[in-house]
Fold:
Amino acid sequence: MNDNRHIRAGIVPCLVLAAFVSVPLCAPAKAQPKPATQNSKPTVPPASPAAADELDAAYSAFQRGLYLTAFREATRRVEVKSDPKAMTLLGELYADGLGVPNDDNKASDWYRLAAARGDREAMFALAIFRMTGRAGPRDRQEAARLFADAAKLGHVVAIYNLALLYLEGQIFPQDFARAAELFRKAADAGNPQAQYALATSYKEGVGVKKDLQEAARLLAAAARAGNTDAEIEYGIMLFNGTGVAKNEGAAGSYFLKAARKGSPIAQNRLALMYANGRGLKADPVEAGRWHLIAKAGGNNDQFLEEFLRKMQPADRTMAEDKAKPWIARMTPVGSTPFPEAPAPIKP
Structure:
């Protein structure tokens, strides 16, 4: 029996894997990736010792939260040296309203000046502005051009975003092989999102030859870096022994990490492991606890509902008591046993 419940629409079909006892286990559907915006903070570039010392004064102040000092030092650096890195820093300060009032137009102006002088961080930041419609209308074509320019200069997240555009096939002709090539560049540079995306390509055989061992290797790298989706899918591969040596205990540790970060999918898998005593010592209280939390997050499970119904009253009460503080911090999308909890969100 296949578990076809999808949390979100996937860009590729869900890969059905082996089941937990009588309860199917399926890799969670991956939503169509969105352009990454992390690592858009300006970074200190390599420079000559003297130039680095001057620029470091601005970045050091920025990193310590001394934003007015950073603004003054960066402004001085621009006036004296017309330094593009300092321009990018000024753009960041205006973009986030740090030490100065938020002003997207000024931020965009500084990013544009720095990008014209070859700064890849500015190119990336300006691409995000164009993609999201900050400081002007959305312009995906211009965003794509800027991502490509930043990617040529080695900006890892820009490389990843460029791969997504080839995967999407709207701005560029859809090209899975090119997307996989770009994902590989970003993955080799240590980007967890790219590692996860490339793993999905290998798992599905999209743009590359299907290779479950390589998929598992990449998922492991992304999971170790804390990518939640990778923690879940690598946990599934470990549990089933797909592309990697079977290790149910290790699978449980990855599910636990993702569950603690709020993933209803991982919470459900963890509850199943506790209920069945697979990979983790059987614990009905923990099974009930994580099921209630997953259910409040929108991931219900009939097997676990029946398991909960048959629990000893004292164990069920303990499970509810342990779940209640967690659910109290949530905005439930599913039902809960607590009348004072926020009303579930209607689909």
Observations:
- Confidence is low (pLDDT under 50) at residues 1-32, 42-51.
- The chain has 16 helices and no strands.
